[in-house]
C-alpha cells in the first residue's frame, strides 16, 4: 500500500489502466503535454538508456516504460515531486527499469554518465517571466512552469551533455519559444529533425510544439502533419483519443 500525503491522490494512466500515478492539485498533476511528448518520443524497444529531465511526478518515465524495456532515469529538482515520482515507481513495481534522481540538471555530472543516453526527453518550464510578480503564488507550480531554477539554455545544454552522438532529444514546449529552441539546438549541435504543431482545434492557433533533434545529425527537418486535440463539439479527435489510450 502506497502512502499518500496531504491532498495527494492516485490516478490511473489511460494508456495502461493497471498503472497508477500519485498526483496532487497543489503540488503537481501531469497534463496533456506530457502524454503527447511520451507518444511523440522515439524509444528503443528492447534495450537502451533514456533520460528524462524536469521529470515532475515521473509521468514521462512511467508512460515510456509501457513502450520500452530500456532503462529510464528521471531527474527532478523539487524534493516533493521527486518523492512522488519515486513512490509511483515503487507502486507500479518498476524499480528495475526506472530510477529517479533528485537534483539540479545543471549539476548532474557526478551522477550521470555524459554522452551515454540513447534518448533524452524534457518537458521544461515554459515561461521566462523574470518578474516575481508574474510568478504563481504556489512555489511548486512556479518552479514547474517558470524558468526560475533552469533556463531553456540550461535544459538544451544538459540534453547535449548526456545524449550520445547520434542519440535523440525530444521536447514539448510553446510555439512562442520555437525560434529559441531551434537556435539553441543548433548552438549545441542538436540538429532539429521532426517538428509537429499541436492545435486545440481546427481554425485555432497552435498552443504546443513537439520537436525532436539528433546530436551531431545532418540538416533535414521534417514538418509533421498538424495534431488537433478537440473536435468542434469539444470531444477528442480520433488521433488524440488514440494517443491518450496508447493505441
TrEMBL record:
Annotated InterPro entries: SAM-dependent_MTases_sf, Small_mtfrase_dom, tRNA_Adenine-N(6)_MTase
Gene3D superfamilies per record: Vaccinia Virus protein VP39
Pfam families registered for this protein in UniProt: MTS
Domain Methyltransferase small: 19-128
Signal peptide per UniProt: none
Domain of life of the source: Bacteria
UniProt protein name: tRNA1(Val) (Adenine(37)-N6)-methyltransferase
The organism of origin for this protein: Ornithinibacillus sp. 4-3
Phylogenetic lineage: Bacteria, Bacillati, Bacillota, Bacilli, Bacillales
